[in-house]
Amino acid sequence: MSTDQLVYRGVHYAMPQHExxxxxxxxxxVYRGVHYxxxxxxxxxxxxxxxxxxxxxHIYHHHRQQQAQRDLQEG
Length: 75
Hints:
With 75 residues, the protein is an alpha+beta fold. 24% of the residues lie in helices and 32% in strands. The strands form 3 sheets. A two-stranded antiparallel ribbon has the order 1-2. A two-stranded antiparallel sheet has the order 3-4. The relative contact order is 0.09.
């Protein structure tokens, strides 16, 4: 099976050409009342290692780094 062929409940079908790759052409759209004109294809922003993520009193970014270091040392 090729990468552009999809299967749903045993039925094979090809992905439409317009859905295969996001375009680099700007597209106008609105999200929560804010108008945007940007391409659908974009590169993710680099991770800022200095930031800690806080949610309901928990720090996630720092905690995950520490846990990953412990896992590497143990494993």
